Amino acid sequence: MATPVTSLLELGMALRSRELSALEHVTTALERLAADTHNAVIVLDHDRAVAEAAALDDELARGGWRGPLHGVAVGVKDVIDVEGLPTRAGSNVLADAPPAAADSPTVARLREAGAVIVGKLHTHEFALGPTGDVAATGPALNPLDPSRITGGSSSGSAAAIAAGHLPLTLGTDTGASVRTPAAMCGVVGLKPAFGHLSTEGTFPLSETFDHVGLLTADVHSASVAWDILARPDGTGGGIQLPGVAGVRVGIPVDEYWRAADPVIDKTVAAAVERLQAAGAHIVEVRTPMIDELAAVYSPIVVGEAWATHGKWLAERPEAYQTGTRERLMPFADQSAREYIGALRTRRRLVPQLRAAVSDVDVLVLPTTRLRPTPIGVGEVEMGGTTVPVRPALLALTLPFNITGWAAASVPAAASDGGLPVGVQVVGVKLEERGVLRVAGALANG
Amino acid sequence: MATPVTSLLELGMALRSRELSALEHVTTALERLAADTHNAVIVLDHDRAVAEAAALDDELARGGWRGPLHGVAVGVKDVIDVEGLPTRAGSNVLADAPPAAADSPTVARLREAGAVIVGKLHTHEFALGPTGDVAATGPALNPLDPSRITGGSSSGSAAAIAAGHLPLTLGTDTGASVRTPAAMCGVVGLKPAFGHLSTEGTFPLSETFDHVGLLTADVHSASVAWDILARPDGTGGGIQLPGVAGVRVGIPVDEYWRAADPVIDKTVAAAVERLQAAGAHIVEVRTPMIDELAAVYSPIVVGEAWATHGKWLAERPEAYQTGTRERLMPFADQSAREYIGALRTRRRLVPQLRAAVSDVDVLVLPTTRLRPTPIGVGEVEMGGTTVPVRPALLALTLPFNITGWAAASVPAAASDGGLPVGVQVVGVKLEERGVLRVAGALANG
Asked: Are B171 and B265 members of one domain?
């Protein structure tokens, strides 16, 4: 099997110089995905991908270059529409879904920029879970340790990057679902600010909190991809990643933000020291409203999910995975009053959170409270305490779906030499490019 | 009692030339309000108003002129905060409300522009009703016929204009509440587009549909006031009302939009003929989704109202007026699913409605299906049919709270010589100034 090329920088240079053809690159990606052992792949769009790669090679041979994604293989989480492929969202409920009639807007933008969509990737059922081990197609396996979870719900999108199959994948993030699998699999995940990428053509989990995002092997690749997606004219170009001198970095110090795994806190602290050494100003910040704010998450997300799934759950409960059904059922009787109350609490507290961190440009904190846990395990022991897995993989990311701020997870080598740690960078005054700039400065390989 | 001056044009000229002092004008308004026989007044801010009027006279004498509202008396619906006065929202539930700590943003903007806030005006209890006859302070009486309703919920704001007490009042409009009382009382009401005036400092009925609006005696006065409120620098200035030649006017012809009172349809048709004679292009439009779209109104409004009132209704049901309690109680058990479903239907159908009317600049249609009905009457006989009053006063206005488009009601002399008819102008391509331009062209005195 051919060596992976996962850096969009290297790949873009090789493709543009025609040292590597799009057809070779895409064929390699298709072969790797076909031979994948991490259950990351749902379906390949083999023939179309090959034909498009060949056409992009012709285009380049005639002098037409679409930018740094020209000829680049891209995979898409199976909740996002890709023309001609069904969107099954990891569920038997959608086993008979027809082929999507059109690309979702982000997929369409990538195609215009020369990307080749090679197929659909594994997702936690209906994107409702941060573990990636509940799906009609079985659990996704972490390429760093196949006995452990990938995190979710963009499980296949993270695994395909970590396994070296692809340089860029699309995911979605409603509470954790790009950043947490990125953290678990040791890759980079970017959740742009709310609304910056359209959720049209994406199977909804929660219209209030759904974000489309992207995953790459390194921060520079994420910047290249974001530069394409963020620019309405579709033209890309190299992006500068200058230093972080003078950037004000907030470290939230309330109990809420503490990891369960002490190695995570230690590793994040070391990353913060690197930022400080690079000239960033480090500021401790306090967020006394965070517990009350975080509590609005479930009533809103699961309320909205119930509004989508209630009818199907009544008609075909057996089509759902047990874990999904158990998560949804308690919200069957949710009142409009409770849901509206949660929306109001959010409207009241987000400005308070913003005010509490108004002195900083970004926040830096762990992405998750745990590193990858064994597949199918609901609780783990950590320092003599029992830690439930699901909330540990959601708690530190979901606040920024509630606020809608841009946030990225970047891997850092763990202080104990074990599985890597996700460090989260959250934009307060800065948006995606600024978040990626800070992420680039704290990444240590 | 002094003769009223209700035109902001005439009043502004008289005040600026010092032919009339602000103190004289404000004192007259206070006297008229104190002697009001339509139950339009909740409380007067007499001493502050007199002091401010005198100070504005001094300011003008020194050459300081704040614009066309300099020294103009303004009344405010008692759901909108005015510093130092309680906001009681027409309810015994808020009988002990403390004085508001600050002006709502629109009140503050008016004061900066030289307006003198003279007091708070009658509202239907909690703004939850289009009739104006359900309130802790009793029903408001229509100055055109005191045996009939003013419409609501901005009942006092419309009555105070119609009675000649004031040239400008503020109201709120969640489904009808500026336009319907304007129509009932023969005055002009403007509901700006959603979000164009802040609802901060306003007792909420529905965060999804609440709008702050204004009422005046004539269209030109509304334009003068809107010009102040819409301009961030607070400076006003005369506004031109050119013709409507070339403006595309849509007439919705589906059954939904038909009035119950045939005089209303006849009068609106005559107004449309005047627009056509003035050079407007008249186009029939069809809106097949309107019944389904209109049906989202109650689940959203009353669901949100229940989220506010549920606790109080459980604790102090007797503090509510019977009509208000009866309107709220059916929503006690509303599910989040139903509420979220209504929001989703709205998101799906509003673009369809916009597409259906995309060929026109404005819509012109009746404001209400009935003219003012007797106070306290829930149904009327009309052409051999029983017509429930409440929906007849909501149905034609609430669609534009759902869409959030700017809309105004302007009075037209009825074809039968009876009580005037409200003609509604709704902005599709045009916003507030364009709506008022068309409204000015179709008004016939």
From this structure: no
Q: Provide the token pair at B100.
A: 């508001």
Query: Of the candidates A306, A333, A340, which has its C-beta nearest B307's C-beta?
Result: A340
Phi, psi of B335 (to 5 degrees): -90, 155
Question: What does the longest C-alpha to C-alpha distance in chain B come to?
Answer: 65
Number of domains in chain A: 1
Query: How confident is the model at residue A112, as a pLDDT?
Result: 97
Residues whose CB falls within 8 Å of the CB of residue A114, separated by 6 or more in sequence, listed in order: A56, A65, A66, A67, A69, A70, A71, A72
pLDDT in tens, A337-395: 999 999 999 999 999 999 999 999 999 999 999 999 999 999 999 989 999 999 999 99
B169 and B278 assigned to the same domain: no
Which residue range forms the structural domain that includes residue B278?
248-293+335-442
* Share of residues in chain B with pLDDT > 70 (%): 96
Residue range B12-22: average pLDDT?
96
Task: Verify whether the Cβ–Cβ distance B335 to A338 is below 8 Å.
Answer: no
What is the residue-averaged pLDDT of chain B? 95
pLDDT at B233: 52
**How buried is B381 (Cβ within 10 angstroms: 0-12 exposed, 13-18 middle, 19+ buried)?**
exposed
Q: Which of residues 229-288 of A touch B (CB under 8 A)?
A: none
Q: Could you read off the pLDDT of A156-178 as tens digits, one per residue?
A: 999 999 999 999 999 999 999 99
Per-residue pLDDT at B443: 81
- Say if strands B385-388 and B379-382 run parallel, antiparallel, or are unpaired: antiparallel
Q: Which chain B residues in 197-216 lie under 8 Å from chain A, judged by CB atoms?
A: 207
Judgement on whether residues B252 and B117 belong to the same structural domain of the protein: no
Kindly report, residue by residue over A190-204, the tens digit of the pLDDT: 999 999 999 999 999
How far is the C-alpha of B436 from the C-alpha of B32, rounded, in Å?
Answer: 28
Catalytic residue among A21, A91, A104, A153: A153
Assess whether B181 and B286 both reside in one domain.
no
In a domain, B307, yes or no: no
CA atoms B57, B21, B212, B230: torsion sign = negative
Task: Check whether residue B170 and residue B258 sit in a common domain.
Answer: no
Contact B310 A339 (CB under 8 A): no
Report yes or no on B56 lying in a domain. Answer: yes
Are A340 and B339 an interchain contact pair (Cβ–Cβ within 8 Å)? yes
Question: Could you give the ipTM of this predicted complex?
Answer: 0.86
- Clarify whether residues B151 and B264 are in a common domain: no
Task: Specify the CATH number for the domain of residue B121.
Answer: 3.90.1300.10
Query: Quick one: average pLDDT of A309-318?
Result: 95
CA B266, CA B268: separation in Å to the nearest integer? Answer: 6
Q: For B328-337, what is the mean pLDDT?
A: 92
Distance of alpha carbon B344 from alpha carbon B348, whole angstroms: 6
Could you tell me the pTM of the whole model?
0.91
Strand-pair category, B248-252 with B281-285: parallel
- On whether the CB atoms of residues A163 and A194 are closer than 8 A, the answer is no
| Residue B416 maps to a domain | yes
Query: pLDDT band at residue B6, thresholds of 50, 70 and 90?
Result: confident
Supply the pLDDT for residue B383. 86
Nearest CA among B291, B270, B282 for reference residue B362: B282
Within-domain flag for B298? no
- How far is B129 from B138, CA to CA, in rounded Å? 14
CA distance A319 to chain B (A): 21
* CA A269, chain centre distance (Å): 23
Quick one: which of B356, B347, B368, B361 has its CA closest to B426?
Answer: B361
Q: Is the domain of B190 the same as that of B284? A: no
Q: What are the tokens at B192?
A: 């700006």
* Pair of tokens at residue A169: 């994948």
d(CA A157, CA A76): 7
In the listed set B184, B203, B230, which residue is the last one of a domain according to the structure?
B230
pLDDT band at A82 (very low <50, low <70, confident <90, very high): very high
